[in-house]
Every structure is written in structure tokens, then in C-alpha cells.
Task: structure prediction
Amino acid sequence: MWRSRVVSVSGALHRHLARNSVRFHSLKAASSLDGSAGTSSDELSHFKSLAPSWWDTEGSQRLLHQMNLMRMDFIQRNLRALETVEDADTFIPGYNYQEFLPKSVSKIVNQEWDQKVSDLLKKKQLSVLDVGCGGGILSESMARLPFVKHVRGIDLTEDCILIAQVHASSDPSLNGKLDYKVESLDKVHGKFDIVGCFEMLEHVSRPDIILEHCWNRLNQDGVLFLSTINRGFVSWFTTIFVAENVLGIVPRGTHQLKKFIKAQEVVEWFNKKHAKEFKILDLKGTMFVPMNGWVEHDCTSVGNYIMAIQKLH
Ligand SMILES: C[S@@+](CC[C@H](N)C(=O)[O-])C[C@H]1O[C@@H](n2cnc3c(N)ncnc32)[C@H](O)[C@@H]1O
Result:
């Protein structure tokens, strides 16, 4: 029964997708455009209703809590890869030393190298803007990193910001490292080393405006991290049909297929608006594997994805 229903829905879906094939409008002066980027009041009241259970790791946001482990790994891996160890007193040969050297030796080489990268990063003391921070799952994790000086989390849902503030206040180590504000992106001043926009673009009707504002808030060499969902049948099937309607592990009404954005559209938008000013550091497909959590994979055009884009000189 499920199968025939899915097949008949699939035809309608393809027609729907064809009608909504372009998510990015032509963007002239994005910096003067409203940073709410067309987020509807329905979207915001949906997140308001979820705010009280935001930090329940078995509650409405459990998939975000699980996803957070994967995205923190992704962020740290990409930031670490940008560091160059110049004063290495450990010589790392160009061949695959892990296979060539005895395990005990290559393990020590790795540890020393990792420590040098950690020291370099720690000296940087980076500033972070978390756009659409919700109840602060990612903002808190970022603020705990030793190489992060300060995180600002902004969101348009007041109740989410309240929950974020209350939750952060229970950890004294976050004192002075994290602040939250109900604020639209176009009202944010200053520049940041890292801008994060996680699971948020698929909730606005003008993702291009959000991207432009995020880009304008980045320091040179800074990195924009984002994660969102490809528009397509697989995303509808997994994220809306299965997760929301069948299993109920994501609250019903959280997602709308027409608001999903293909990874390729994000890349094309950067090519069009900021050609030669950016470098895609990393792009990975991501998926939830029951009993295992969120994992990365190489198919970036289907389902969820995560991306790191560096602002060049
Ligand atoms: C699915 S939640 C993601 C929360 C958080 N980024 C995370 O991944 O843990 C989406 C959040 O985006 C916020 N949001 C939607 N449109 C926004 C906008 N234009 N500006 C700021 N926040 C927005 C919502 O209020 C909601 O808290």
C-alpha cells in the first residue's frame, strides 16, 4: 500500500518540482534587503511551539542534537585543514608514513602534528556568528571550542532565543563567550571569522538574501558553514514523508519541499555573485543512519548536505 501511494505521489512531486525549479531570484542590492528574507509568521510560530523542548535530546529537536556531532566534526576538520605547520620539528615524509612506519611511531607523529595544529588554531581566537541559532545547540558547542573567542547567536523566534539564554546560563564556562539576540541578519554589524547557517536556509523564501548577508558579515579568509536540504524526491521521501509523517521523529510541518535548495544552486549563486571571491573548501552529503547517527557521504546532490565556503582576498 505504501508503495503504490509513494509511486502516485512521486508523479505529482515531479510536476511540483518542475514548477519550483529555481529558488534563487536575481538579487540586486541584497545588503539593503530585509534580513528576515521572507520568513513567514507560520514558520516562526512553528519554531516558537518547539522552543520548550529544544534541549530535550529525545524531543522535537533530537535529530538536530544528533546532527550536531557530525557538523562539529565537519567544522573542526575544515578549520584544522586551513592551518599550516611551518616550524615542524617532526619531519613528515610525503609518502603514506602511516603504512610505512611502525604504528607506534606514526601514532606519535600524528599526535605531535595534531597538537601543533591545535596550538596554531588556539592562538587565532575566532569570532562566530550563528544565524538562525534556534535554542543554541550549535552556538554552545562552538563557544566551548578552545580556539573560539566569542559566539553571537541570532534568531527571529523570540522563544528560541529565551530558551538559548536560559540553557547557556547553566554553564559558567560560557560566561562572556556567548550572547544571543532576537535580530534580523541585516541589523547585525561587524565582521566574523566564522558564519554558520545551519538548517535554516530551507525555512526562508529568499535564501539568496540570507547568503548575501552572511557573506557580507565574513572577514576575509573567514569561512561560511551551512547545511540544508537538496530539493528532490529523496528529500521529500526521507525528510517529509518518513521523518515527519510516518515516524514522527521530526515535528509535522517543519519542512516544505519547495523551500529546499539544491547544493548546485548554492554553488551557482556564488559563481554568479562572487566569482573568484570564494573557495568551496568542502561539500558533503549527509544522512541519518538509524543506530549510528548522522554520517557524511559523497553524493552531494541528494538529501541533506553540509558545505564550507571560504572568502578569498
Ligand atoms: C531548524 S532551526 C535550526 C536551528 C539551528 N541553526 C540548529 O541547526 O541547531 C531553524 C531556525 O531558523 C530560524 N529562522 C528562520 N528564519 C530566520 C531568519 N530570517 N533569520 C533568523 N533566523 C531565522 C528559526 O526561528 C529557527 O530557530
Notes: The chain has ten helices and eight strands. The longest strand covers residues 218-229. The beta strands are 126-131, 148-155, 178-182, 192-198, 218-229, 278-289, 293-297, 304-311.
